Amino acid sequence: xxxxxxxxxxxLAALALGLGVFLSRILGLVRDKIISYYFGAGPEADIYFxxxxxxxxxxxxxxxxxxxxxLVPLLSLAHAEDGQEGAQNFFSAAVCWAALGITVLTxxxxxxxxxxxxxxxxxxxxxxxxxLTSFLxxxxxxxxxxxxxxxxxxxxxxxxxxxxxxLSPLVYNLCIITGGLVxxxxxxxxxxxxxxxGVLAGAFCGxxxxxxxxxxxxxxxxxxxxxxxxxxxxxxxxxxxMLGQSIVALDEQFVRIFGSLAGEGGVSLLNYARRIxxxxxxxxxxxxxxxxxxxxxALAASGDREKFARSLxxxxxxxxxxxxxxxxxxxxxxxxxMRLIFRQGSFSAADATQSGLxxxxxxxxxxxxxxxxxxxxxxxxxxxxxxxxxxxxxxxxLVLPVYLLGAQKAGxxxxxxxxxxxxxxYACLLCRRLRGKVGISLMDAETDLSRGVLGQSLTALxxxxxxxxxxxxxxxxxxxxxxxxxxxxxxxxxxxxxxxxALFYLICARRFAPFLxxxxxxxxxxxxxxxxxxx
Length: 535
Hints:
With 535 residues, this protein is mainly α. The protein has 3 domains: 1-243, no CATH class; 244-450, no CATH class; 452-533, no CATH class. 81% of the residues lie in helices and 0% in strands. It has helices at 10-39, 43-50, 53-61, 67-111, 113-120, 126-139, 143-158, 163-186, 191-217, 231-243, 247-259, 266-302, 305-332, 334-342, 349-362, 366-381, 386-437, 452-479, 487-512, 518-533. The chain is globular, with a radius of gyration of 24 Å.
């Protein structure tokens, strides 16, 4: 079991976590593919996706996704000032409070499930609401595993042991897939229920058991307690993240809540489309934000505002130089992408077309969501968790009636458009607050090649338009030669559209705006240097 306690350097840690995230996203797509194959965009899929609204909200309320951000630096401080035993006492108190808090909230939600189900999906029939209540009561206890597991994962991060954090989401998704397939095979009429039991098994095995085993293998003197002086500091850092509900996080829940008002299949179609929309956000924006954050934090700590501003603009610009053309290409091929990934079994051609339209709408928000990833970390680098939380809460309150109106007037498309509006508004207000609080504007130009983030993005958009025409032309040309109903036909169209888009974009960028190829040229140069060193 030596792999449980193996430490990693920064490079190996990034590689392990990056590979884990990538494989987890692949398994997530496999999971949704299986669900769409057996249940399409029908009522069972709607109920399953809606069953995550309350559990996910509890996770956001307890700042589960950000617990490592707040706990790791405090563990370092406790170890430096109080020694090994003091740090372990603080960790024990944090785990106890996290476990106690989430268990109480989960128990209350479990008891109130019949009352919460109609609020979660107001458009469901009484029969669907009753089944949603059953699903809720299966999935809810998983939260009692996730938050304590996040504490143990934070300790693994502190020890620089990244193997288990990289494996945990894989185990979680594998359990969901296994549970669903077993039920679909043994009891088809209860098939979707198997995915719910898989969530619970995955939360226990991947979210809690694996981190606990890894921590114990590395040595831990756990002493249950509820009192420690550093708990106040932990609460102070986590409270803004607990109370401030970002529209970026809650959009997934609003898609499920208001999607239930869009008719049968609305929830599942929106979820399938959003799953694909988040791929470029995760691969480009989250990866870029994670890579830039340590440098931004160091520059903020040193007080060098000019270098911080240059680094922030460079990071934001590089992310958008990739996000903008990628978004435009995905919009041109949206329906083909949905057909390639989901068009089999119960997921019909009409479902693929409708979900492709929803994906096309949702993709409009990708550049804004990408910008938010880096700007939000600029606040965190200055130890400001309050500003993003307040702005996120304000935007959430503003767009809530928009979601309701959109669902009532335009169905699923209206819900998708409301999420786009919320994402763009949140990014704009974050940038405005960054300028007012830190004195940094992302729109300032510094060199001939750097025309400001806005100028770079508009130039990338201009070069993407002829490339988009080439992409659409490639798809339409193939319609005359091979059917699009088959997986191979859809795959050929995706490949042809991507190739045509990339070719025309590179030609336009090289001819009119060579600075757009800066990130690509940098990667090529680094690869060439490595090849020269190791021929």
